[in-house]
Request: fold
Amino acid sequence: MKKSRKRGTREKATARGKTYVFLLFVAGHETNSLQARNNLARLCEEHLKGRSKSTIVDVLKDAAVAHTHNVLLTPTLILIAPLPKVVLLGNLRDTKQVLASLRLVGTGP
Amino acid sequence: MSDRNRPSRKQKSGKGKAEAFIHALRTHQVDAIIGERHIMLVRLKRAEEDLRNSRNQLRALVASLQSIREEERANIGRDIHDDLGQKLASLELGLSWLARKLTHGQQPLRQKIGSLSVLVTTMIQAIGRIADELRPNVLDELGLVKTLQSEAREFERHTEIRCRFETNIGNGKLNRAGSVAILRIVQAAFTNIVRHAEASRARVTLIKKAGHLILTVSDNGKGITKKLVHNPHSLGISGMRERAIALKGRLSLRGSKGKGTTVTLRVPLSQVRIGDKSVSS
Reply:
């Protein structure tokens, strides 16, 4: 039996119900890093209530993890799961764009 | 397009990453860049703000220094005129008195006193001119328009470069700071014409238009080059620009090779406060 669903629909179906796992790379208490933390927390609260797990990596304390994930600047957000992996650069202030990149459009309040 | 020429998924992904990187930098969303051995904190926005603040402080200092300089010039001009000028006038009177006391037989002495009198008269005139240049009294007495008319006439007389002055501001009065700044800009422009332009004609216009006062000084000389316009060592041009900024105005210089140079100053009328109704002249 052929699977006729389009790729976008399949991704949205995958997104619903799954736990989102994030890695957020920041640089201490620098301005953009703080904004990225706040924006990620708000996004998880509004669109992924109870379905997200975020790990904050401060590159000023642990740069090795950044090298492992080929992170070149902060803030950088990596969506580890569900696949495919997504890498977002910047302070995540453009909510619409962030949601679209994370395949969360239409799942919010 | 054949498969060979199409960019691979890896190439497309690499290009996308680079664009995202550049976008993040340009929009000031980056805190740190992670190298192999070092992490560089990026504070571009703060650095830009610091630079802007430093520039504003520097401008304020320059404006203050210019103001102090004008005051010093005025003081020196007054001292030269009142003190030195007075003493030379006394010397002239003394020489006249001496000449009257001479007898017919003292012709050589009379001639000597005569030539000394001429020298003293020349010195008095020079003192007057220097004092005027240091403190432009004529600005207070006649106003900017008549002063500029006088400057144009003097410029023509000393350089044999034909100079025309036109204005539409009539007898409207400008505040002293604005008048001095405009006069100094015209004088600096005249100096540049004499030194560099190789011109035969010059023109000065002072026009009130659309809430602004627009001064132009143009010549028909060889034309200033872009390199000279932006030369940081050109103190004359820097000085003109700082005077324009102090009046919240803008100064531009444009040169056309073989056709001449135009200096344009544009300041808001509110900064130079023209009173009275303007009359076309």
